[in-house]
Description:
The structure is a homodimer.
Chain A lengths: L1 E5 L2 E4 L19 E5 L15 E7 L9 E2 L9 E2 L12 E12 L2 E4 L8 E8 L2 H4 L21
Antiparallel strand pairs in A: 2-3, 2-9, 3-8, 4-7, 4-9, 5-6, 7-8
Amino acid sequence: MHFEIKQIGTIYSPFKKMEEAPIQPRFSDKPGKIEVFPEYKEGLKDLEGFSHIILLYYFHLAKEEQLIIRPFMEPDKPKGIFATRYNKRPNKIGLSICEIDKIENNIIYVKYIDVLDQTPLIDIKPLVPLFDFRNIEKIKVGWLSNKKERPKQ
Amino acid sequence: MHFEIKQIGTIYSPFKKMEEAPIQPRFSDKPGKIEVFPEYKEGLKDLEGFSHIILLYYFHLAKEEQLIIRPFMEPDKPKGIFATRYNKRPNKIGLSICEIDKIENNIIYVKYIDVLDQTPLIDIKPLVPLFDFRNIEKIKVGWLSNKKERPKQ
């Protein structure tokens, strides 16, 4: 079955090419700007009380789908795509959790961003630990367990 | 701009109707089964070391889009859709963070599930606190701040 999704806004960042972008917002020190198209602005009501949002976006520059990839974090050991956040996924949807700096009109300013400039936005959801986690202290991260920070390039 | 996404599997749960489903996995006490279609099975490699996954799925029974909704948690105070996890979103993509029980072949068994039976799966991503959070202790949840558990029905 196939479904159609639509762009509801645009993410702006200082990163113009994949090689420049940090692999996750956690490793970014650059702020970003999320423009929600004016026709969806009303949906931002009440978001200002939240500190973190989950952004869903479309990996518009991703190449062909691959089920096995070689991650930056461990390039000599190929991994299944669903055990990574890579962009060559069967559905090219990316996810970043970002901290809100401020919201002005239909623009959300976030403290750190990891996505490419001009990335199409497809959804914004509030991060709510009460909804999302039980046993947060027991989270295990498999092959990423001994990775503490972004490898130097 | 529009994009096409495809079903890559199916989520099975005990919930046949919206009225039966818990509003988030955090409030569920029922296990679920995630079938990844055989052609995508290879992508599950290395996922078994992770304890939690982020499921993205298509709200196949969601009705027409609404930018302002009345949430279960506070029905007398309408909220912007992006400040909620409701299904009547501009793009009907749902997100649940689930704890893995076991993975057998192309089936992931999760301890708790909140989605409707037969929901189309569109992506699986590992939950990696190192990637996703900085300042986790500072997360603020706006209008949900004083909500501690699911309201009684």
